[in-house]
Design goal:
The protein has 549 residues and is of the alpha+beta class. It contains 15 helices and 15 strands.
Length: 549
Amino acid sequence: MEFRLLGPLEVGSTAGPVRLGGTRQRAALAYLLLHANQVVSARQLTAALWPADQVPDTARKILQNAVWRLRRSLTVPNDEPDAAQLMTRAPGYMVRVPAERVDLLRFQRLAAQGRAALSSGDAERARGALREALALWRGPALADLAEVGLEWPELIALEQKRLDVMEDCFEVELQCGEHKSVLRDLDGFVRAEPLRERAAQQLMLALYRCGRQADALGVYTRIHAALVEGLGLEPGRGIQQLQRSILAQDPQLDLPVRPRPDSVSSAAVAPAARARPEPHAGQGGGPANAYHGRTGHASPAPAGPAPAAASGGRTTGALPAAAHAHALFTPLSAPLKAPSSAGTGTEEAQTQQLSSVLMLRFGFGTCDGMSPDDVDHVLDSVCELARQEVAGAGGMVATSIGSVLLGLFTEDRRALEDGAERAIRAALAVRDCLITLGSPPGRPAPVVQGLSVHAAVATGTALVYRWPAPAPGTGRPWTGGDLVDQCDAMLSRTPAGKVHVCDVTRRRTQHRVDYRRVATSPARWQVLAIEQTPDDEPAPYYTLPHSPR
């Protein structure tokens, strides 16, 4: 027999599910299994089955009858040597069962193995054990009994153990460089458990490594407010130190660069290191700042010559405000070369092959009744939604300027879809969340009056540079080159609610995406539909927080 407590109580045998009777019998068995292979006194079991002021005079007799019926239900033919046994042992009862037959005991064993591996530095072994432990959960422990009002301290402690193991699992994923893949789950965990500082630290680190420094500082602001206002406590030293390190852009927060095989081109970008942006307008050192610069102006270019692009040999001078705001975006995770020995004061461009650039622009046509502050607030919200969709599709966004947001999708052999397809899925997800939902069937409308979404995807070679810096590793990286210019030109001719792509993107995705040729746009192709995958779900209705009336 298999005993499952990590969810509704279930007992299974080779013949199928075992019938356990009514609530009292199920509760008695569950409590004994929570203390498997230990003697539970009759007094302790009685206290678990009835509230202190509702214990009937016949409680002992009812308990004896329940145990007798359970013993019959758990009887296994042929007297198997490792079969579970419900035994009478003074001063009460005990369920003797092999540990591998109880999911709770397997969970505890796997969690201990994972933590031991984590302590010893074996991240891969820890990851496997912790994932296997969490996979045993089918919902809240003994959810069916909790639903009828049974409240046991053991269940509260068990839930805390599950949360601890989830934090251990997040820790392992961060050590393995999987900050993008765990970002959504980690964010949901922290919002559900706002007082768990360890998870908040993990989320801050994951956001920082994804290039979202302002968002990382925003997490600290939330937990600081929750602790101070709710409990009158200041955050712990660990999370305070992390906040200071993020503000200082401490290089120790980055993952160490892993050596690449000799067969990989020296121009390839290592996925483990990360280039992060300097703060600019609207994203400076304070956590309360917005996710983008509302003024629509880029930061001033640093003094000194700009690096020459590797493709075409042109030189980019001082960065214009709107037309080339994309030059400040830093979506690549790239180890950038040291300054050349020739003493030019610049660093060579790093080339990322086969990347797909997604550029989104949010427009506001008719905004009757909306003040400039309301427009800024809505823009904050839609940019945050776009960030989440891009990150969820495996892309990277460092920042945004005004109403334009740039994401980059690099090729990843571990991904089921290439970067171009993931970029298209992210564009459609943003559009569908903001435009089509909440409308009558067949009549798409924006969730905010006057809001429009424009999207373009270009696939090719992206370039990353780092400006000269006073200290090694502290220069400001930026992304530019023909690919971003091409995407910018495509976006300028993309109608509201449409997604336009280039020829290369279309060739790479035509087996999964339906297109229509567009003769009047440099993009040439408009996305009509994309093949659904088993993991696709309807886009959730997105409510803009505090949206104007």
